[in-house]
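tool_call: predict_structure(chain=1)
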Amino acid sequence: MDLSGKWALVTGAGRGIGKGCALQLAGRGADLVLNDRPGSPDLANTAEEIEAMGRQCVTIEADVFERDGCEQLVSSAVDGAGQLDILVSNPAYSERCSFLEYPPELFEQTLRGTLLAGFHISQLTARHMVERGGGGKIVFISSVQAYLPISHCVAYGAAPKTGSTT
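tool_result:
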């Protein structure tokens, strides 16, 4: 698949699944807008690897667990790249805690960050894709915990399952 001339926005691109997706897209010719949380020590390293592959790369630190962070990210991404053709929505947040001790505030924060962030970033990106008339692709990434929850990741295990299809 040749993605030359396409711009992809990848959230959580500093490490893990997001970084892997970004490198694969770059390997197929896409230019990248990389996002990770503010202060991420890993985002610059991912960008260096992509630029070493001869691809253009824009990095944007933004908290996609909040709607205003998603708005800032999409606006900055469009300004930096000129267009968005692909979104890899990869937000996740988790803290380990036993079910009986899990603070309700942490449970709600995890659900918001993991489930609602995907909605916000994809809605804003889809609006851009429709407005520019070129269409695009939106990919949602979940982890294996959608099917095999881990006992001390109660909220995170619930969030990906909510949006999964089997």
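agent: Strands lie at 7-10, 31-36, 57-61, 86-89, 137-140. Proceeding to next step.
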